[in-house]
Structures are given as C-alpha cells and as structure tokens.
Amino acid sequence: MERLKLSGQAKEITKKLISSKDSDKVGYIAAVDPQTAEVFYGKSVVEAAKQGRKMKNDPKAVFFFVKVGHPSVDVLKNIALQGHIYEDYFPKIKGCVHNRNLHLTSLPPKNLQDLDFIADTGFSGSVVLDTSITQSLDRDYL
Predict the structure, then answer these.
(1) Same domain flag for 124 and 93
(2) Do 16 and 59 belong to one domain?
C-alpha cells in the first residue's frame, strides 16, 4: 500500500479542522481528499468516507480523516491496560489480532502472535497501526 501524502492545501485544511473549536461541525469526522483538499463530513469515519466517495463518484477514493476540533480521530477510553518498560526503555502494551479483531490486552493468548505497542508517556488514547495490521482486521479502516 502506498503511503498517503497530503498536498500543501490539504495540510492547511487539516490543521484548520483540528484547531476549529467554534464550528457547528466540531465532533464530526472530516474526510479530506489528500490531493484536492475537498472535505466531506460524517458522524463516523465510514459515514464520511461514504459521503466523499458518493460526491466524488469514486468508490475507491482514499481520504485522510480528522475529527473536527480534536487532535485525533478516535480515543480509547476505559481500557484497563498494564504496560511495561522493557530493556530498550520504551513503555509498551501488548495486543493481538484474533478473528480479524484487534485486542489490546496484557496477556495475549499463547497461540496468537502478540503485538507490541509503544505507549507515548503523554498517551492521549490514539493508536497508530501498520497497514498490514489494519488490513487483517474486520473493520473499515481507510
């Protein structure tokens, strides 16, 4: 999968959307076309992508997603995870993919390949995954 690159105009639009605090779209998901900087809104990533693909008449259109007025699209809340500091001095949490779902857990089952996630010490709840992992999940990640 090719890495998504934002045009200069798309970068500016995403910065404005993230810092927008008084818009009637705060809390909505904005699907930003990485080349043209066109913006399509929805209440979820899937809804915003569907709106953008419909308006562009392109069922395979790719977007960059922003939650209007927020620094990240999704935040994990109320998850009791125990992290560890490993010998490389990075704080890490464990996870695994099981039945095409991502599980964040302190003790992944022994028969599954575990994934190490580096937890930012200023962790806001945002998780970034490699495309090979997102493609193995049973979800729409665009």
Answers:
(1) yes
(2) yes
- Give me the chain's average pLDDT, please: 77
For residue range 18-63, what is the model confidence (pLDDT) as tens digits? 899 888 999 899 999 999 999 999 998 889 999 999 999 998 888 8
Domain that residue 55 falls in: 8-67
pLDDT reported for residue 54: 94
Where does residue 23 fall: left (phi above 0), alpha (psi -120 to 50 degrees), or beta otherwise? beta
Amino acid symbol at 131: T
Distance of CA 80 to the CA centre of its chain: 20
User: H/E element holding 16?
Assistant: helix 8-19
In a domain, 3, yes or no: no
Residue 64 half-sphere exposure toward CB, CA atoms < 13 A: 22
Q: What pTM did the predictor assign?
A: 0.55
Among candidates 58, 63, 45, 55, which has minimal Cα distance to 139?
45
Q: Which of 121, 116, 88 is nearest to 104 (CA)?
A: 116
